[in-house]
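REQUEST FORM: STRUCTURE PREDICTION
Request ID: SP-0412
Submitted by: Lab K.M.
Chain count: 1
Length (residues): 142
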Amino acid sequence: MSTNKTQPTDQSPEAFIAGVEPTRRREDGLRLLAFFQEVSGFAPVMWGPSMIGYGRYHYVYDSGREGDYLATGFSPRKAALSVYIMPGYQNYDAILGRLGKHKLGRSCLYINKLDDIDMDVLAELIRTGLKDLDARWRVHPA
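STATUS: Completed
RESULT:
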């Protein structure tokens, strides 16, 4: 069985964000670092070289593949802030309609800058995503 390429690391999330460019992305990353911890109740952990995760879950697919992954988190990427809500956004249209300017991927939300969105709605989305994930696969502290 193969393992996930993205694994938790010992890298400091604060040190990672300190090196993020441009400055605006770094500032938004610092805001999200504290925001996700407050909303999720989990401490931040680096997953791979650029993802900051909060909580983890163990999944087992029908195919038999299984592994551990971050429960929620973000990455301050150059093109946009990537926000990770597992298992995806397919059932969150009502919340997303109130969020503000964003784009969607499968389990990823892309935000250009935090000023474009309603942070209270983002908090609701994170809590809802964690609750839905925990109903399927138990969410634990990382």
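NOTES: The beta strands are 44-47, 51-60, 66-76, 81-85, 103-104, 108-111, 139-140.
Reviewed by: T.R.
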